[in-house]
Design a protein that fits this description.
Blueprint lengths: L9 E6 L8 E7 L2 E5 L14
Antiparallel strand pairs: 1-2, 2-3
């Protein structure tokens, strides 16, 4: 996935790891770069997406 992000116009990354809860929007990217972070801390599984 990290190789794919630079190829897409926009990405919305959600954390849906908690059952029976609405997925949490973590961040958005535009043209492979972080556009907006919606949470204070990115979960430990997600930072590789922003490299």
């Amino acid at each position: 996935m990290e190789k794919t992000l630079p190829l897409v116009d926009r990405t919305h990354a959600y954390d849906n790891s908690v059952e029976n809860q609405t997925p949490l929007l973590l961040f958005r990217t535009i043209d492979g770069s972080l556009y907006k972070q919606h949470v204070e801390g990115i979960p430990e599984w997600a930072p590789f997406l922003l490299k």
